[in-house]
Q: What sequence folds into this?
């Protein structure tokens, strides 16, 4: 038997093996998965806020421009990043590179937005004061992100994440944005400085912190 | 080769994949047979090495098998297949970067052939230069530079002191350098 014939035989045998190991699969519904993540994340955030101490002065957030802007930013980035993470795990449906970069850029822009409200010298003088509480809020934001990260990572791993880097960045960004939203339910401070350092900055830092190990996990998972 | 599947075939693939998702093994086997040339074509465009191409082919087909549940029958089949194949190839290449560095660089077969020819010419020239060296110098250069032995190991093998082998090797490098420079001058002239 020639080498070419042998190769063809091996080739066919491999395809036969694959076909013989076929099992029926359930169709994937990305929207359902997305809503499932949203529901779980909302429930966990609410539960965690109640457990850690509910913000009794929540209405103050709605009368503060910086606070409203930050909240809207979190909602926007969280919702889009989660949807992108799911789409990136579906071959043939991945959003283009430009859209992904745009989302991260918009998120980066949102972090500077509250500074617009700090133009008065009085606002800048509050830096030191706002730093103290910011570390607590930053740490808390990471805790808030745990459940959304695990659930979204689980969903994406069940699909077929092709680009580990982007999927993990989007998962981390979505979970951290959601966590940033959750911190508003817990933290009373509406000071723009505090929100920039304690609520928005951790979203970015946490994204870097979480996405790296997540990327390693995704790469390992694909090898299994 | 990549375009060997017509649009109609891809339309047909969508239906076949839907049946495969329901567990129809015969249809799945047919689907794999249809998409194989497309996948092979995409791989061969990037990899010339036959064994490596076969390895990547199996990895891609396994990925397609594992990711089959993510295909939505209401969507076109080609982007799904393209995305899985392309990403799996790139993942594989990234993992074995060193091994495939040359093949990625020389995607064009003419360029690849030229690179191989240059490498062969360089090897030939080096062999000529080594042959010109006196026996003891050649031995020292071969042991240290080509076989990768340490000074100590090379000295032990030849049965002389470490400083003596260093001197022999150094003289050898000088002679090699002179020979190669002369060759270069001749070529330029």
A:
């Amino acid at each position: 038997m020639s080498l070419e014939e042998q190769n063809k035989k091996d080739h066919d045998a491999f395809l036969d093996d694959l076909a013989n190991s076929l099992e029926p699969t359930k169709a994937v519904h990305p929207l359902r998965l997305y809503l499932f993540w949203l529901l779980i994340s909302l429930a966990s955030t609410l539960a965690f806020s109640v457990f850690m101490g509910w913000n009794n002065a929540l209405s103050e957030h709605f009368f503060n421009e910086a606070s409203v802007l930050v909240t809207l930013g979190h909602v926007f980035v969280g919702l889009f990043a989660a949807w992108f993470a799911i789409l990136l795990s579906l071959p043939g449906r991945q959003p283009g590179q430009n859209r992904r970069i745009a989302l991260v850029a918009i998120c980066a822009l949102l972090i500077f937005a509250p500074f617009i409200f700090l133009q008065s010298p009085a606002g800048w003088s509050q830096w030191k004061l706002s730093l103290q509480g910011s570390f607590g809020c930053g740490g808390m934001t990471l805790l808030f992100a745990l459940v959304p990260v695990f659930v979204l990572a689980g969903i994406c791993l069940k699909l077929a994440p092709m680009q580990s880097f982007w999927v993990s960045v989007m998962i981390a960004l979505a979970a951290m944005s959601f966590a940033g939203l959750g911190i508003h339910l817990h933290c009373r401070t509406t000071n723009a400085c505090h929100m920039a350092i304690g609520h928005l900055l951790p979203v970015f830092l946490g994204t870097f912190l979480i996405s790296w190990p997540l990327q390693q996990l995704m790469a390992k998972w694909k090898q299994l | 080769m990549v375009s060997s599947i017509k649009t109609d075939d891809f339309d047909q693939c969508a239906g076949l994949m839907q049946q495969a998702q329901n567990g129809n093994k015969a249809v799945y086997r047919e689907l794999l047979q249809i998409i194989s040339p497309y996948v092979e074509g995409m791989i061969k465009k990037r990899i010339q090495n036959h064994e490596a191409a076969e390895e990547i082919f199996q990895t891609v087909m396994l990925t397609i098998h594992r990711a089959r549940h993510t295909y939505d029958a209401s969507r076109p089949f080609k982007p799904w297949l393209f995305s899985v194949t392309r990403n799996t190839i790139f993942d594989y290449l990234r993992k074995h970067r060193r091994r495939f560095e040359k093949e990625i660089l020389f995607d064009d077969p003419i360029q690849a052939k030229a690179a191989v020819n240059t490498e062969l010419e360089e090897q030939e020239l080096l062999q000529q230069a080594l042959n010109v060296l006196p026996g003891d110098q050649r031995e020292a250069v071969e042991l240290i530079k080509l076989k990768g032995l340490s000074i100590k190991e090379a000295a032990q093998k030849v049965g002389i002191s470490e400083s003596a082998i260093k001197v022999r090797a150094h003289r050898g490098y000088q002679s090699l350098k002179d020979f190669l420079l002369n060759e270069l001058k001749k070529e330029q002239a």
Remarks:
- Chain A has one domain: 30-223.
